[in-house]
Amino acid sequence: MKPFEFFGPTRYVFGEGVTEQVGGVLADAGWKKVLLVYGQGSVAKSGLLDRVKESLGAAGVAFAELGGVRPNPEVALVREGIGIARNERVDAILAVGGGSVIDCAKAVGFGALHDGDVWDFFSGAAQVTQCLPIAVVLTIPAAGSEGSSSCVISNDELGAKNGTNGDAFRPRVAFMDPTLTYTLPPYQTAAGVTDMIAHVCERFFSGVGPVPVTDLIATGIVRALIEAAPVALDNPQDFDARANIMWAGTLAHNDIAGCGRSLGAGRAGGWESHALEHAISAFDTSITHGAGLAVIMPAWMRYVWREDPERFLLFGQEVFGIEPLEEGDEGFEGAGTARAWAVEATIDELAAFFQSMGMPASLDEFGLAPENIDAFCDLVAKARGEEFGCFKKLGREDVRAIYELAF
Amino acid sequence: MKPFEFFGPTRYVFGEGVTEQVGGVLADAGWKKVLLVYGQGSVAKSGLLDRVKESLGAAGVAFAELGGVRPNPEVALVREGIGIARNERVDAILAVGGGSVIDCAKAVGFGALHDGDVWDFFSGAAQVTQCLPIAVVLTIPAAGSEGSSSCVISNDELGAKNGTNGDAFRPRVAFMDPTLTYTLPPYQTAAGVTDMIAHVCERFFSGVGPVPVTDLIATGIVRALIEAAPVALDNPQDFDARANIMWAGTLAHNDIAGCGRSLGAGRAGGWESHALEHAISAFDTSITHGAGLAVIMPAWMRYVWREDPERFLLFGQEVFGIEPLEEGDEGFEGAGTARAWAVEATIDELAAFFQSMGMPASLDEFGLAPENIDAFCDLVAKARGEEFGCFKKLGREDVRAIYELAF
Questions:
Q1: Rounded distance, CA A13 to CA B362, Å?
Q2: Domain ranges for chain A
Q3: Nearest to A1 among B4, B11, B243 (CB)
Q4: In terms of C-beta density within 10 A (0-12 exposed, 13-18 middle, 19 or more buried), how is residue B68 classed?
Q5: Which pLDDT band holds residue A41 (cuts at 50, 70, 90)?
Q6: Is the per-residue pLDDT at B335 higher than 80?
Q7: What's the rounded mean pLDDT across residues B196-208?
Q8: Domain B11-180: CATH architecture, name and number where available
């Protein structure tokens, strides 16, 4: 078990109807005026935005607004929000939406307290140490941004999509009503669940050996997701399935599933699958992050597992009940092969689960072609350098080989 | 999944040598003077107290002192601490010790900001809404007070041992160095692990049906403890075993293992085993809380499991791999009996695990006798009323029957 710091200060208010509490909780926190940040229409259409505004009004909390946040939120809108936050002297930022809206709100929150340009935090020129308080009404469980120290912003001018991390902008309060997710399209539900499982796996396969308490929490979260997802896809209004997915999504990324699993300081894991996926969804921005992960992560696993088969055997055993073959079993050809069989079976099961939710099995299905691999490799190198990774160091030829496995 | 609020604001600084960071972290928090609270000698003898003082001194953090906290901390010492905290105008309270020391520090922290007597919070006359910041250097993993909203204080004059709960006094920072637990006697290690498992079980058997994500986290914590405890008992200096126990102890009681499992507002579970144990360790204060739980909890389980066998079957399956017998198995006498067998086997396994660590199997072993049961029942009624509990409502005759099973 490696040294770690864990800090999860978010107050989670979870259950049907919690949106009604927004105004009261924000007023109790002493926030008199907030900047309300939201997306491109669905929260307005569903009536949620009006309910939030009513709740704020009833509690005497004033608000300014920043709407129109797009998926992969762009720095220009963040800058606009920073201007509003300053001019209106807001006390806090209230995000109503999913990961993109929350990340935009976070960037406005720390950008507003920074003398220079907010991109400084994404270019590596500055570190976030302070932030206006962030509050969240979560509508899309996937990114885990409601509890995480992550923030990812795109810069169209530079052709970049960069992230920063900081405990200072972990949300202070998150309102989580699973019934708000009843109307999520199946593809988005499935991509969200895939992203959550990837958040756990990046930490589970971090290059650190067993940490039983953290490992069993991690595999427990994955099992709960594998159990709940088909139920939610089959009956989108199943409260318990939606609730388990929503809460699992928070725990998958608030770092509780990585305690003691970090090789160095900071978050556990090398985030190899995320890096490889970010390249393809940067290459073709129509690709949903979770759907990309459903293809990339199994490919990465097939390429790297020999670095530490025990991690994969543990994952397979805990999540899928897969045990290595024994002498006498069909297909047994010695202990080494029996273990290889169990690892391959584990990766196959995981990929099959993603596909059972409607996720793709190959990059083909996005209309990508092996000819694009050079471009993907360039994008990965630009974001992560010529060599990166914790479970196994990946150079350009490794990256190429993994992409080849993803076709 | 029931509605819940979860708030765990503690910053955990975990790993070998983290005590050296105490002064710096407290200074960074802006605390210029703290009240150092500790127990009856072991932290002084081990040199830990000196190291903490050195760290504070090096960082320019001044301190006053309140030593001599006993197990089952008493309100008189809390009042003394409140006087010191006020006179010295400290900014925060720093506990160096286990659950008793931390609880004393918490009570000083909220008592110092209260106009009336601190016992008001334990008699039910007042609710804690504010507290001086609490910091902790943990030396005994068991009570989970380093992350919890619990505080239990004794009042010798009234013959009472009462608790209060409040998010306001959850510690702001906890320094957790597993090597500080290398010197814990085996009995204390075992009693601590038993207490942790009880903290999880009180929430798991809360009267609420399945909440997969929380349930699998809960059983994962228990499994990690069952794996680590014999290793630590066998080799007290096994870092990984000590580290897993220490972190599991925090997660067992910071409420993450109870999210969505509460029948009403507040903490999940009826805390029946804790109530039954508190009576016997109030009757004979030489009884260690965890050792009492090792006897009481299995007895409670044997009495109540028929209220919801599924919960016990899930626990048995996840923690011990116990499946109900099937037709053809030896001992199978119909599905009902097969399930009863699996539940009994689960409770037997749990009790056997406690005993394997050196914990007692019967109240006999404490020198108690069935003639004491009336007195126990009176103490339970005094603390919890004539009827209490969530998994199954327990009246006086139920309580009596459970104690009978504990002999």
A1: 42
A2: 11-180, 182-405
A3: B243
A4: middle
A5: confident
A6: no
A7: 98
A8: 3-Layer(aba) Sandwich (3.40)
Confidence of residue A39 (pLDDT cuts 50, 70, 90): very high
The token pair at B403 is 């104690």
Locate tokens 């793709």: which residue? A360
Which of the 8 DSSP states describes residue A17? T
Other Cβ atoms within 10 Å of B77 Cβ, number: 19
Residue of chain A minimizing CA distance to B215: A220
Average pLDDT over residues A304-326: 95
What's the whole-number average pLDDT of chain B? 96
Among A25, A149, A208, A213, the residue to mutate for chain B (most B Cβ within 10 A): A213
- Band of residue A334 on the pLDDT scale cut at 50, 70, 90: confident
> What CATH number is given for A182-405 in this structure?
1.20.1090.10
- Bridge partners for A173 per DSSP: A11, A135
ipTM over 0.85: yes
Which superfamily is assigned to B186-405 in CATH? Dehydroquinate synthase-like - alpha domain (1.20.1090.10)
Q: B-chain residues within 8 Å CB-CB of A5?
A: 11-14
Alpha carbon distance A160, A122 (integer Å): 10
Is it the case that residue A343 has pLDDT exceeding 80?
Answer: yes
Interface of A with B (CB under 8 A): 1-16, 18, 178, 211-214, 216-217, 219-221, 223-225, 227-228, 239-240, 243-244, 247-248, 251, 256, 259-260
